[in-house]
Design goal:
Number of strands: 7
Helix content: 25-40%
Oligomer: single chain
Distance between the termini: 34 Å
CATH topology: Rossmann fold
Largest sheet: 5 strands, parallel
Shape: globular
């Protein structure tokens, strides 16, 4: 897949990096957005994990929260817990307009997929409502998906699944039931391009899995064969 940035934009990014070298989100050292020392301290998730939601657990089939639950998502996987440096990095990307972080963070997802492959023909970022897109200027999940697609050679379709309802942020919902209600009917699929496809949904953070599950249900109704969620971090 071609680089998602046009040549002039890539030139500007390189020029800015030379004039204003990146600094580590964790310790402030110059040289990279997450330095080697801070990278080694990232809160990585190690087996055993729940096969559905991807959360760490003692060895068993499903974690208590997933037992008996009907979900549209085939499973959710993530390299990190939503703590420390990775939490700050996601906050900078999402709310502070530090879009230059996206390649580094997508690189972590790529490394994770190399070690823990998921079935996938196409990457689909979790969409945000057009009102929030106007406010923020970009969808951080789309940035991650395009950078990851460039690294792993998978196509990205970011205009088929859309968010049609403007709802409060999932982070503000106080319970799993509230999060499910918050996204009920919030998404729709505009066409059949994802029919017969194995889809990997890309997002920055998953708390209860409600958003990913809602997206997966819509995609499967549109003909997707499997839908897995891949997120940078899981919030426990």
């Amino acid at each position: 897949m071609a680089d998602v940035l046009p040549p002039i934009t890539r030139f500007k990014r390189v020029s800015l990096d030379l004039l204003f070298p990146p600094w580590c989100i964790g310790c402030g050292r110059e040289g990279g957005y997450i330095c080697d020392s801070c990278y080694r301290q990232l809160p990585s998730i190690s087996p055993p994990i729940c096969p559905r939601c991807g959360r760490p657990l003692s060895p068993e089939n499903l974690c208590p929260g997933c037992t008996g639950e009907q979900s549209g998502i085939d499973g959710i996987r993530s390299p990190f817990l939503f703590n420390g440096v990775i939490r700050r990095a996601i906050h900078e990307l999402k709310y502070r307009n530090l879009r230059a972080l996206a390649p580094s963070l997508a690189g972590f997802l790529h490394e994770f997929l190399i070690d823990s492959p998921l079935p996938g023909d196409v990457l689909v970022p979790v969409p945000i409502h057009r009102k929030r897109l106007r406010e923020r200027g970009y969808n951080q999940s789309s940035l991650l998906a395009h950078e990851l697609g460039r690294l792993c050679g998978l196509p990205v379709i970011d205009d088929s699944l859309i968010r049609r309802s403007y709802t409060p942020s999932q982070a503000r919902a106080s319970s799993a039931a509230d999060r499910l209600e918050n996204v009920a009917g919030a998404f729709t699929c505009l066409d059949k391009r994802l029919r017969e496809k194995q889809v990997i949904l890309i997002d920055d953070v998953s708390t209860s899995g409600a958003t990913l599950s809602a997206c997966a249900g819509v995609l499967k109704s549109a003909g997707a064969v499997t839908v897995w969620g891949l997120v940078l971090a899981l919030e426990l």
